[in-house]
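Supplementary Methods, section 5.1.

A reviewer requested that the exact input to the structure prediction be made available. We therefore reproduce it here, unchanged from the version used in the analyses.
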Amino acid sequence: MRHVIALDVGGTGMKAALAGPHGELLHQARRATGRERGPDAVVEAVLGFAAELGAYGAEHFGEHAAAAGVAVPGIVDAERGIAAYSANLGWRDVPLRDLLAERLGGVPVALGHDVRTGGLAEGRIGAGQGADRFLFVPLGTGIAGAIGIGGRVEAGAHGFAGEIGHVVVRPGGTPCPCGQRGCLERYASAAAVSQAWAEAGGGPGADAADCAKAVDCGDPHAVRVWQDAVDALADGLVTALTLLDPGTLIIGGGLAEAGETLFTPLRDAVRRRVTFQKLPSIVPAALGDRAGCLGAGLMAWDLLDNTDRMEVTT
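The structure derived from this sequence is encoded token-by-token as follows.
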């Protein structure tokens, strides 16, 4: 069976799959990145994991993978195939596309940013399916974004499009590692809510999920922390929809797991803030932690589709 390798590299672990021609996941596996051993070990772990997947596909499906797609965190030069920088993984300027292609016997390889890759999957086969314009915003340790336009995700001129977490929503506010003050992710990420709730009464070790449970129980301190985060998120999202005019806002990540505890007040907060803007649908992400793998598979199939079109044209 014709298939591709799909690999989603995270800060601490890797999720991978062999994906069939209709996006189905034929085989799934997970590995640690080994980041405690340094960036060179992480690169070797990625290459070795991809090679294992390739061998599994050849043995179980009767042929080698036709292509591979890999999603990585940090700064990515997708056009040149370089993983430029990742604070979590410690690497800099890794020619990952070429290294993977060599390890996999010369198959075409697509390299993408993890959030944009997940957004590609959500837009095509997840919560944004059928939407011509969407914005995917995962709320995790930080906040990023993927801008979907006509079935693809916009990377921007320098690969930084969609960084909504660094929109300033509270001028002069909490310092951000990016160098600014008052960035959205300092107020509305899962990490920010966890910290605020721990300080407001949740106690050491309390996290955003604990805060959401306390909100459901009517704890006034939790309600205040939660509403502050929702208000900041709404401010950032309204800025984004003013600029981008998406038809659908897809909210994912750990904070979205709170369900309507998040979505009901968030929809209300965005609705109160819009004036001339068209209110988009605000929906939860549908693919969960499979989005990166599914998106990496889509990137790989896109490579093959483009190659086939070029061969027909020439």
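Confidence is low (pLDDT under 50) at residues 309-314. These observations are discussed further in the main text.
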